[in-house]
Amino acid sequence: MGYVGQHSRGIATRTLEELLQEDDREHLQRIAERLRQLSGSFDPEQHLIQVSFDDSHRLISVAVDGGENLISPEAREIATGFIRVSAASPDFKKLPDPLEFPIKGFRLFSEDNEEFAQRVKAEVDELFSREIFKCFAETTGIGPEDLGTHYRKGVPSLVRILRDVAEWAYLVYLAQRYEEFNVLLVKDGRLAQVGVEDSFRKKLLKFFETHGTLLVGVVKANKLMGEKLAVRIVLKWLDPYDVPIAIRVPDELMRYVYTTSRQWDPEREGSLVLGRRHLLRFRKKEFEPLESAIAFDVPEYLAQDKKALSQVIATLWGHRSALYGGSLGSIVEAHERASVGDSAVSRLEWELWNWVEREVFRDG
Predict the structure, then answer these.
(1) Which of 67, 154, 261, 354 is least surrounded, with the fewest CB atoms within 10 Å of its CB?
(2) Contacts of residue 313, Cβ cutoff 8 Å, sequence gap at least 6
(3) SS3 track for 17-33
(4) What's the DSSP call for residue 97?
């Protein structure tokens, strides 16, 4: 970036011919060959999904906020986090109240690492004694021991892990409460959980599979749809078909885009994900994640059940919203209800800093 008022002089190289050295074409051809191989990895019989789009179910979307909105994260002595999980649905007028709680760093602070870890463990144990977390533990078998130890590294790590655990606890609660309605639960974000023991993911997935829960994770931003050439390949696959159209993303393309299979393959031991990546194209226009198509993760037990998978996709299609560019309006609404980034947080931070100034620095 130049200084204000400074103009760029441009570069001496003006054409591709001037840019390329003698062996550069070989590297470009190598890349082209690999992309052609990827383009040929799509098999309609294997990856194209047959959907009955009139088989739409009721839907509840769930979102969580708070992991990135710490009060004073740069001051570990007083860093405080707020977590809120909320739901939205066009099909149910009355939904459970949001789940909300703070993580008060000043209650956990200690200069001694071992004492800090003990205080954090006690905080998590207390959280799991509360109603919704207690229900979560009893129905899934997941306890504090399944969280691992990463959350003990500091308040930011603790808030991030508990943020995700709270969202899963809320989803499990909804799965039980609305089981008789065979409702589709839509998680805002991919079906994945990092920073915990593998037992956490296995127990969680077992619960949803045992209950036959219709569960999907709708991904707003992801590496697959952020790589321009990968998107171009997907466009080539989708263009010959009328909309709506749904596909399972071929493993070959996922393997190419992601650096490790733990990030995309739910069958790999130690995998971080609970579902396989699919795409649903709403209409034919420029391929943008939240306008003409959405990426979503589906658990393997649903991905292998053609009828259930059809119901999931038909429900997503049936709840598309023109107001949100063809995406799901209930996800946006759930996220707005969960948001903790408002003026009250700023005021709390201001009051906390005023307390520090008054109690610590009032004498200069």
Answers:
(1) 354
(2) 49, 51, 53, 246, 278, 280
(3) HHHCCCCHHHHHHHHHH
(4) P
Regarding beta strands 245-248 and 184-188, do their DSSP bridges make them parallel or antiparallel, or are they unpaired?
unpaired
**End-to-end alpha carbon distance in the chain:** 41
CA–CA–CA angle 115, 160, 187 (5° rounding):
150
Which pTM was predicted? 0.89
Both tokens assigned to 206: 């077992």
For the residues 168-192, what does the mean pLDDT come to? 95
Spatial contact of 352 and 71, defined as CB atoms under 8 Å apart: yes
E-strand ranges in 261-321 read 275-281, 293-299
**Tell me: the pLDDT tens digits for 327-345?**
688 998 999 999 887 777 7
Helix, strand, coil shares, percent, the chain, to 5: 50, 15, 35
Read off the pLDDT of each residue in 345-359 and give the average, rounded to a whole number.
Answer: 88
Q: Are 78 and 356 in contact (CB under 8 A)?
A: yes
% of the chain residues with pLDDT over 70: 90
